[in-house]
Design goal:
By secondary structure, the protein is of the alpha+beta class. It has a single domain, classed as Roll (SH3 type barrels), CATH 2.30.30. It is built from 5 helices and 7 strands. Strands 1, 2, 3, 4, 5, 6 and 7 form a 7-stranded antiparallel sheet that branches. A hairpin with a 2-residue loop joins strand 2 and strand 3 (42-49). The longest helix has 13 residues, at 117-129. The radius of gyration is 15 Å and the shape is globular.
Length: 143
């Protein structure tokens, strides 16, 4: 029995890591993406990359606060294979229904790892520090 797209989208938890296959989706195809936030019917994702030197060069070139590129060591929980950073300046929002549809069509697959609460908080801190993230997205993290 196939689950409805909306239900698949509703089941996403903050910290879960997904692999995005399709180049027509937001984010970077062929990369993992971490769900930073699931609030209401909106999911916020950040793209994962193991190219640490790219993060350093981007931060310097764009004059970004380096904390907007948090680096994560591989752990038994996140299951990263290498040191991985997430560019908190380039997060994106997607509806539960759209994300569920992507899952049903195999454009996105869930990975085994999950970021812990401290790692998620580092992402939130990076998003709030960014001067390039839309205020509507930053507002999702303010209580």
């Amino acid at each position: 029995m196939e689950l409805p797209a909306e239900l698949l989208g509703q089941s996403v938890e903050a910290g879960e890591i997904y692999f995005f296959e399709d180049d027509k989706l937001p984010g970077v195809p062929g990369h993992m993406h971490a769900c930073v936030c699931h609030k209401g019917q909106v999911l916020i994702f950040g793209t994962c990359s193991s190219q640490k030197n790219t993060a350093i060069r981007l931060a310097e070139y764009r004059h970004d606060d380096p904390r907007t590129y948090p680096l994560f060591e591989p752990t038994n929980t996140n299951k990263f294979k290498k040191e991985t950073y997430i560019d908190c300046n380039q997060v994106f929002a997607v509806s539960e229904e759209d994300f569920g549809s992507w899952r049903l069509s195999n454009k996105v697959q869930i990975k085994r790892g999950k970021m812990d609460a401290a790692e998620i908080q580092r992402l939130i801190d990076g998003i709030l520090l960014s001067d390039r993230v839309a205020g509507e997205i930053q507002d999702l993290f303010k209580d």
